[in-house]
Amino acid sequence: MFSGNGIHAIAEVLVIAVLARLLTPENFGVVTAGLVIIKFSSIFSTLGISPAIVQRPKLETRHIRTGFTLSCFFSILLAGLFIFMAPSIAGFFKMQKLIPVLCVLSVVFPIQGVSLVAESLLQREIKFSWIAGINALSYTLGYGIIGITLASAHFGMWALVAGHVSQMAFKCLSLLIVQPHPKLPLLERRAVKELMFFGGGLTLARLANTTAGQGSNFIVGRWLGAEALGLYGRAFQLMVMPAQLIGMALDKVIFPAMAKVQHQQDRLQTAYRRGLSLTALVVLPTSAAMFVLSPEIIEFLFGPAWLEAVIPFKILSVGMLFRTSYKLSDSLARATGAVYRRAWRQGLYAGCMLGGAWIGQFWGLNGVACGVLGAVTVNFILMAHLSMKLVSMTWRVFLAAHLPAVQLTILVWVGISYLALVLRDLAMPLIIVLFTPIISIGLLVFLFLYLAPHLILGKDNIPVLQSLFDFIPTRYYSPKIIKFKNK
After folding, report:
1. What is the C-alpha separation between 106 and 42, in angstroms, rounded?
2. Distance CA 293, CA 280 (A)
3. pLDDT one-digit tens code per residue, 424-455
4. Of 27, 183, 265, 392, which sits with the fewest C-beta atoms within 10 Å of its C-beta?
5. What stretches of 390-469 adopt beta strand conformation (E)?
């Protein structure tokens, strides 16, 4: 999953870098406004059916057929409702260009509804290589190639719309081919009840979580306009990439794995603690590097026209760990069935996000970013508290799991800050200022990892490194690594 998401992330960076030079912030702003509503509304097209299928201790054919029927019915119903309400939604955002965009994007709902059960079954069966490959391929072929081709042909915002729809269509077709399942319609009363009880709690939490995730885009689009939303949307997209790369990979793997051992608290606690330590070890140094090099990152990827996104991106990067790490707590709560305890916390998170973004918009995009950072921090603390109760973990153990990452982050932050300052004073070219500190500090970290892995990793990440050795063919080992692995 991590390697597949890594390919997806690289493709995403390349695609948005190209599109940012072919399209205007306003083009991105209009489509982003449409996707905010699409992602929010998609909650009601599935009603938590997907995680209910993954989590069920005993899954029968009647559950599969009922889940497929429900997902198709609700997704088609929602698509029709979406088309009907498009003028009202566009009027609220004060963007008349949004009406046709919403009508076309509504086709995404039936596409997702048809493939929902197939994707759920792949997750349940731990077939992550297929999921990762499908996600990466559908993004590259759909959003990447089609989006860039149409943008080059001067289709404007419609390049983004067509790319998104094509991505969903490629993904749906691939899932149905890879994971066939019974599709004969069925609405068996007991199966509906079993799926919807668990799915109901998930839907409430998803409603709140999606409101929080898209709330800042909603506030910016409504009160600051399409161009501001385009700028903010790109900064926000860069910030959540580590969450997508690491958090989503861990979530898709850990949720079904934890569900299989949901009554074995010792194993759950070990998995959660190691997940926290690993996530922090990767994300905290990354956020430090992105904070220091934010001007160069924005200009290198998007060009000089997007420099107003630098400060919001810098602020948002501070909360990168909080946005990524909470997904572990989210997986644990779903795997153990604590969906309603999760739901009220997500509701509070949504309130903090909307309130913080709305108050922040009086100070522009920088104020919105500060409000978002505060809300993400609150959510991280709330979900960590729930997880520690579920696995009987203390705050002392929780904080100790982050200690190796904090030590590594200090090293990375000091090194990159010094090198970036020197190179800027020397007026070196942009690409030198950006990549020299990253490569230099990266080599230093790998040197420490090679010579003294315990110093960098801590006790929780040593088993992860040993698992990685088991994954890599032995012909690529050096004698020192073999010695360390055996030890």
Report:
1. 10
2. 20
3. 999 999 999 999 999 999 998 888 777 777 77
4. 392
5. none
Q: Say how far apart CA 38 and CA 402 lie, in whole Å.
A: 36
Q: Measuring CA to CA, which residue among 385, 278, 372 is closest to residue 319?
A: 372
* Residue 247 located in a structural domain: no
**CA neighbours within 13 Å on the CB side: how many for 288?**
23
DSSP 3-state of 24: coil
First-to-last alpha carbon distance for the chain, in angstroms, is: 28
* Nearest Cα to Cα of residue 27 among 140, 162, 146: 162
Q: Is 423 helix (H, G, I), strand (E, B) or coil?
A: helix
Find the domain containing 41 and state its range: 1-187
Specify the number of domains making up the chain: 1
Summarised one tens digit per residue, pLDDT across range 361-374 is 999 999 999 999 99
Q: Does residue 240 sit within a domain?
A: no
Q: Which structure tokens are listed for 264?
A: 């074995």
The model's pTM is: 0.71
Q: Is residue 310 part of a domain?
A: no
Residue 225 exposed, middle or buried by CB count within 10 Å (0-12, 13-18, 19+): middle
Evaluate whether residue 152 is within a structural domain: yes
